[in-house]
From TrEMBL:
Cofactor: [4Fe-4S] cluster; Mo-bis(molybdopterin guanine dinucleotide)
GO biological process, one term: cellular respiration
Cross-referenced NCBIfam families: Fdhalpha-like
GO molecular function (one): molybdopterin cofactor binding
Domain Molybdopterin oxidoreductase: 101-482
Annotated protein name in UniProt: Formate dehydrogenase SA2102
């Protein structure tokens, strides 16, 4: 611990990761082409690239993601022949993916309990036959993880819709769904409104509930520039995250050599887990008071009344809600002092241009959608949307999770999408809403779902409640995974199981008309091309678009879509995307421009695509983000990513900035809370999840080791995905359905020698 984020430590960490996973020659070529005009899009995160970057933007975790994919290790048919699925199930996530890239299409053989190689054509034919045998297309679930390119995702949704369903559970349901649901109601678009350039002009950046040092490391470069320019950065997070405090830039030789670093957040506030809405309401309440006081002294007010009158609706209702919220309640739920909230309000009131960035700390709550809307309220109060240097900035997760939504991966299809598909392809897609991730698991649990097809990801481990999810998946008739590496989802067997290997971003993709590029959309609506340069991990791999097209052809013999033509030439897929979505006008031309192009974002232009044509202040009932845990009590558990992980992919067992090495079986807690319970570093505890009445349930995490960390009172943290055993399937946002991964009421018990059991978490 102790040092700044980035710097030499980051370089060493990359070197360590690379040594284990790939040969040096390839890595140099690969890394230098990441996020370059001619290179491939970094699979690490969705932070945009500076438009005119001529040199390679270094990022430790991007380099890890690339080396993980470009590894020389292989999970071959020989490997599968040597290990039964029962045996593999006992292995950790680290060891499953650690075997390297999948090389052959495989089918599960129950007699030997192993995956066996299968010819591609046989696999397609069999899967097609299974899919045609089901009476109800809504008994099939089409899952998408956010690495899929626009081209793959577009074909995927087209296939599912021609097959007859809108069942699109996807990783977005577990990630930024509150943004996709909340922001359209507030500002008429379900995306962020800022561009990278806005960071050159802002006076204030509020970073709420995200951890860029680990999850969006390239953002630190941007924050560093903001800080050097003298603008203010405020972090609001239950945990003091090293990466948000200071940063040594690997791009800056001077900082590297002098071992100095740039201070990032000038102020760091530790909000209680689940206390953001209370904090935001507190800030807005103070703004109201400041405004009245200023006006009474004849000074200009701090609320932008002209903007509110011209552009918005609902301000009076918001005001009434804020006035009726009492301070005692705000301070209790936020865990912050009134002076701290006042300080944030003053900084905000004196900044001409403010950007608010947020991540999973805001979205993954029972009121995640309302949380997002409180952020929009705060920005709208001072006209901070739709002007340079200001706006809302949700940090998307997977590198193309936003693009997948844009090109049609949604269980709630808008009319324009359905009309577009009918206009272009001549078939009428189903209108009925389909399943999101939670609904899909419930359909499997209840025996209503027959088949699950996954375009990437690791749904079983990513979603809440493995106690329900694992057996639910074993109920299926057909399971098809398209993946780069082996993970636990692939070992949850239905009756018929196929594991199909795909090309990764880093690899060349050659189809009938030659080498292909795909496209992705970053967090700021920039769409650009991505072209791999490494040799494929195996000659038997298929690209995702080609694989989806083959599945569609095998399933829909009377299809009206020319799948072969699109798979042979991805520019034909882009033509189709453009025809369905007018925002992609001139698509193939515009991606030739280095850096790509920005999709039209109405809210950025102060055009509000809400029913009334105005931005909406949205009132949230109460201030507790997790109303079902209102009765609680002392401790709320949040779930976190370590520095050595990419979602359910574990690169290793270290969490460098938080000072954890070699293990994941830890519980983060602050010194005072530990002391209250007479716990010291290294002591062991069992956690019990509480029901809404505060009674312990059978959901437990056993034998976690105490790690003392600078963290808000009443808050504790453990790692995702292990902590998902603590989250019931029905604990989710009432509006968007996102699992409430980030506020789990718990109690804990010290482990003594008599009560000690083995931890299920890696150590
Ligand atoms: N290296 C790496 N990069 C990644 C990923 C990865 O796993 N590894 N995952 C990708 C994906 S899919 C996503 S969605 C993003 C995730 O990126 P983040 O949004 O940064 O994700 P998390 O690590 O889940 O949590 C973020 C922060 O929320 C804080 N937090 C927890 N509970 C609360 C709360 O109640 N309130 C507030 N204000 N804060 C809280 C935690 O302390 C933590 O610092 O990153 C993407 N990039
Ligand atoms: N408790 C808790 N749970 C959470 C979260 C949390 O913060 N806390 N975060 C949630 C979030 S934000 C998300 S996004 C989800 C993540 O959910 P997912 O997106 O489903 O999960 P990943 O772990 O990203 O998926 C990893 C797998 O993707 C496959 N893969 C990798 N690259 C490719 C590729 O290029 N193509 C294909 N076809 N496959 C590929 C590999 O086989 C790898 O094993 O988890 C959610 N779950
Ligand atoms: Mo995510």
């Amino acid at each position: 611990m102790g040092g700044a984020a980035g710097g030499w430590g980051a370089l060493k960490a990359v070197a360590d990761a690379i040594r284990g996973q790939m040969s040096v020659k390839q890595d140099v070529i690969a890394l230098f082409k990441v996020n370059q005009p001619q290179g491939f899009d970094c699979p690490g995160c969705a932070w945009p690239d500076p438009q005119h970057a001529s040199s390679f933007e270094f990022c430790e975790n991007g380099a890890k993601a690339v080396s993980w994919e470009a590894t020389s290790k292989r999970t071959t048919p020989e490997f599968f022949a040597a290990h039964t699925v029962t045996e593999l199930w006992e292995r950790s996530a680290l060891h499953l993916e650690g075997e390297g890239r999948l090389t052959h299409p495989m089918k599960y053989d129950a007699a030997t309990d192993t995956y066996q190689p299968i010819e591609w054509e046989t696999a397609f034919r069999e899967i097609g036959e299974h899919l045609r045998s089901y009476d109800d297309p809504d008994s099939v679930e089409f899952y998408t993880s956010g690495r899929a390119s626009n081209e793959a995702a577009f074909l995927w949704q087209l296939f599912a819709r021609e097959y007859g369903t809108n069942n699109f559970p996807d990783c977005s349901n577990m990630c930024h769904e509150p943004t996709s649901v909340g922001l359209p109601e507030s500002i008429g678009v379900g995306k962020g409104t800022v561009e990278l350039e806005d960071f050159d002009h802002c006076d204030l950046v509020l970073c709420i509930g995200h951890n860029p040092g680990t999850n969006h490391p390239r953002m630190l470069g941007t924050l560093r520039e903001v800080s050097k320019r003298g603008a203010t950065i405020v972090a609001i997070n239950p945990l003091r995250e090293r990466g948000l405090e200071r940063f040594t830039s690997p791009q800056s030789p001077i900082e590297m050599l002098s071992m100095s670093s740039t201070e990032l957040a000038s102020t760091y506030y530790k909000v209680r887990v689940g206390g953001d809405a209370a904090m935001l309401k507190g800030v807005m309440k103070i703004l109201l008071t400041m405004h009245e006081e200023a006006l009474s002294k004849g000074e200009p007010g701090v609320i932008d009344e002209a903007f509110i009158t011209e552009h918005t609706e609902g301000f009076d209702a918001l005001k009434a809600d804020l006035e009726s919220t009492d301070w005692e309640h705000i301070l209790k739920v936020s865990g912050m002092a009134r002076e701290e909230i006042q300080h944030i309000a003053r900084l905000y009131a004196s900044a001409e241009r403010t950007i608010i960035c947020y991540g999973m700390g805001i979205t993954q709550h029972q009121y995640g959608t309302q949380n997002v809307q409180q952020i929009a309220n705060l920005l709208l109060m001072r006209g901070n949307i739709g002007k340079p240097g200001a706006g809302i900035c949700p940090l998307r997760g997977h590198s193309n999770v936003q693009g997948d939504r844009t090109v049609g991966i949604t269980e709630i299809p808008p009319q324009s999408l359905l009309d577009g598909i009918e206009r272009v392809f001549g078939f009428r897609p189903p209108q009925k809403h389909g399943h999101g991730a939670i609904e899909a698991i419930k359909a499997m649990r209840d025996g209503k779902a027959k088949a699950l097809l996954c375009l990437g990801g690791n749904l079983a481990e990513a979603i809440s409640d493995p106690q329900v999810t694992f057996p639910a998946m074993r109920n299926l008739d057909l399971v098809v995974h398209m993946a780069t590496k082996l993970n636990r989802s692939h070992l949850l067997l239905g009756k018929h199981n196929y594991l199909l290997p795909v090309l990764g971003r880093t690899e060349t993709d050659v189809q009938a008309t030659g080498a292909q590029s795909v496209t992705v959309e970053d967090s700021m609506s920039m769409v650009h091309a991505s072209r791999g340069s490494l040799d494929p991990a195996s000659p038997h791999l298929k690209s995702e678009p080609a694989l989806v097209a083959s599945l569609a052809k095998a399933t829909l013999p009377d299809s009206v879509v020319d799948w072969s033509a699109m798979a042979a030439d991805y520019s034909r897929i882009r033509d189709a995307i453009e025809a369905v979505f007018p925002a992609f006008e001139n698509f193939n031309e515009r991606i030739k421009h280095p850096g790509g192009f920005r999709l039209y974002n109405a809210a950025s232009e102060r055009v509000w695509l809400t029913p009334s044509g105005r931005a909406q202040f949205k009132v949230m009932q109460g201030i507790n983000e997790d109303p079902r845990s209102l009765k609680c009590h002392d401790l709320v558990l949040t779930t976190l990513r370590s520095h050595d992980q990419y979602n359910t992919t574990l690169y290793g067992l270290n969490d460098r900035y938080r000072g954890v090495t070699g293990r994941r079986d830890v519980l983060f807690i602050n010194a005072e809370e530990a002391e209250k319970r007479q716990l010291r570093v290294g002591d062991r505890v069992d956690l019990m999840a509480l029901d809404p009445d505060g009674n312990p349930t059978s959901r437990q995490m056993k034998n976690l080791t105490i790690v003392i960390i600078d963290m808000a009172p009443g808050s504790v943290g453990a790692y995702y995905p292990e902590a998902n055993v603590m989250v019931p399937l029905d604990s989710h946002d009432t509006k968007s359905g996102i699992p409430a991964y980030k506020s789990i009421p718990i109690s804990m018990k010290r482990v003594t020698d008599e009560t000690r059991t083995t931890s299920s978490v890696l150590r």
